């Protein structure tokens, strides 16, 4: 199953995707974050929050792009979701395939390890004594995942646990399934 | 060239030179370290990775599209936060509240606004006093400007390191050459197509025309054409800033304005006034 | 043959787009099959203007001989192209847009589909699945591709249905003789909706109550799509 998913992601990336240079993407994101930090007076918590919101907005739209490209039907369980997020989602948009690991016993929480992060290539956080502790530079990714998953009825909590930019060993996003959203019922029914 | 009054903002929109002047918006703005940009030259990372490979890495163009588009709602939110921050400070002062603020008013704003944030909606368009406010236009232009400043080296390097490209004569000393560079290379790499036309009056003013400006190909207000043209201005500030930033990085001061050609999106023209007055240019694209 | 109307509902069960092309009228009192009586009961209300009542039903019967032959249809279009185009234009001009998103018919239509969809799943899923934990999604989300509702019909009309994983529901109401149009509905989602709603920075993808898709590009491109089908007019 996992192999098929990987194959699909690779095929879509190769044949169905218009591509731009990754460096340019990195620079663009970097400029936005840098500007945002200045605008918000280096209040990194507020910056994290704004980046998350950017991502949330994007994720809600990106899911339709994703479904159009992939033609996938619904996952049968959260483990499959994880595979698809990594091997298709990350693959076809950012051309990376994060490692899925650290599953919780109830199969509701997993980690994505980003060995390669096109948002943060060659980036160094400012040495102001705060950024390394407070800024989640790539927090937009959490927002994207949150928004996209929510649209397919998976209410998740998505947060960064570690980031190599902060000097951590790895870059790790934690995804936790809070609940499966029920179909909404027309007003007046039930 | 469009001479019609189709883009009402374009005229009012005085040049918005990106400069630290903007900091007057925020109460305090220490010139403290910024987020370091990706280094322009690649030699100091993984020595094992050949340069060629670095510059062939790619991402989905859609990812960049959405990222750039999202700058506009972001800017409006930032604007709101700054305004609120100011009013809260003055409120706090007038009420002389005790040490509640602690200088972290941004966070308080955030928590208060949480319920106001509605992803997937376009409520940021509703308040035109903010959406079309000069501060907002300026900030968006600045996003583009900062990127323009930084990508030039990277673009030139890429171009020169690409064996498929004819050897580039990157003698970017003549303004016209630089304009061609923007039209061909910059546009191609960011918007996946070249500009369609480049004109000049030979005394420093250039008009760059893109008949199908990628970010605006699906840009339609539900209130009709007129409203679409009203709302397009912030979205044009970004590429204006981009051009300006690239020119600045190559030592040319400029004023860049964009307008929708003949009121028909996605045709956009960019009017670039440079401080370059040498008439030594004769060839055109 | 005809396409009567096209509907889009969002995940909050609101009708975010509604377009009427030809009025659907109860044809010459042929009553519908027993299983769908309740739906037929409401059909006359789908029609907004009764002026074309006789015309449309008569024409439909006249053309019914050609219904199953694609070649005949395409010949028709090329031969009398100007008159066909006029007719198409007339239908496009006269049909309403987002006029009855919130009325009873709209709600009944949605409710019917909602119930049918639910039934189609409950009939096949093991009763035990209702109580299992969250690990298996299919017990909670009622979309299972094997039990997907494609269409339902009476003798008067057929309702084609396509639902996306994001909870958007695309519906088209047509003459019952028409082939399955689910692929067409999917096409509308993947191309027209994606381009003119999702990729349109001025258009929301989360609609509040009473908000609708009203940008001209979406309307025009969807109109062009439906009216370009040979099945469009009767």
UniProtKB/TrEMBL annotation, chain A:
Q: What cellular component terms from Gene Ontology apply here? A: endoplasmic reticulum; Golgi apparatus; TRAPP complex
Spell out the subcellular localization from the entry: Endoplasmic reticulum; Golgi apparatus, cis-Golgi network
> Could you tell me what this protein is called?
Trafficking protein particle complex subunit BET3
Q: Which UniProt keywords apply?
A: Endoplasmic reticulum, ER-Golgi transport, Golgi apparatus, Transport
Q: What is its main location?
A: endoplasmic reticulum
| GO annotation (BP), single | macroautophagy
One Pfam annotation reads TRAPP
Q: Which family does it belong to?
A: Belongs to the TRAPP small subunits family. BET3 subfamily.
TrEMBL record, chain B:
Domain of life of the organism encoding this protein:
Eukaryota
Note the Pfam families from the entry. TRAPP
| Family membership noted in the UniProt record | Belongs to the TRAPP small subunits family. BET3 subfamily.
User: What is this protein's record name?
Assistant: Uncharacterized protein
Q: Where is this region: Disordered?
A: 1-44
Q: Which GO terms describe its biological process?
A: endoplasmic reticulum to Golgi vesicle-mediated transport
Q: Which InterPro entries match?
A: NO_sig/Golgi_transp_ligand-bd, TRAPP_component, TRAPPC6/Trs33
List all Polar residues biased stretches: 1-10
| Residues annotated as transmembrane | none
* GO CC, alphabetical: cis-Golgi network; trans-Golgi network; TRAPP complex
Comp. bias regions, Low complexity: 23-39
Automatic annotation (TrEMBL), chain C:
Compartments reported by the entry: Endoplasmic reticulum; Golgi apparatus, cis-Golgi network
Name of the protein this chain belongs to: Trafficking protein particle complex subunit
List compositional bias (Low complexity) regions by residue number. 28-57
This chain's source organism reads [Candida] arabinofermentans NRRL YB-2248
In terms of InterPro entries, this protein maps to:
Longin-like_dom_sf, TRAPPC
GO cellular component terms, A-Z: endoplasmic reticulum; Golgi apparatus; TRAPP complex
Q: Where is this region: Disordered?
A: 28-79
* Pfam family membership, one: Sybindin
Keyword set includes Transport: yes
For this entry, list what GO says about its biological process. endoplasmic reticulum to Golgi vesicle-mediated transport
Q: How does it assemble?
A: Part of the multisubunit transport protein particle (TRAPP) complex.
Annotated keywords: Endoplasmic reticulum, ER-Golgi transport, Golgi apparatus, Transport
The UniProt similarity line reads: Belongs to the TRAPP small subunits family. BET5 subfamily.
Coiled-coil residue spans: none
Q: Which ranges are annotated Polar residues under compositional bias?
A: 58-79
| Organismal lineage | Eukaryota, Fungi, Dikarya, Ascomycota, Saccharomycotina
Superkingdom of this protein's organism? Eukaryota
Q: What is its main location?
A: endoplasmic reticulum
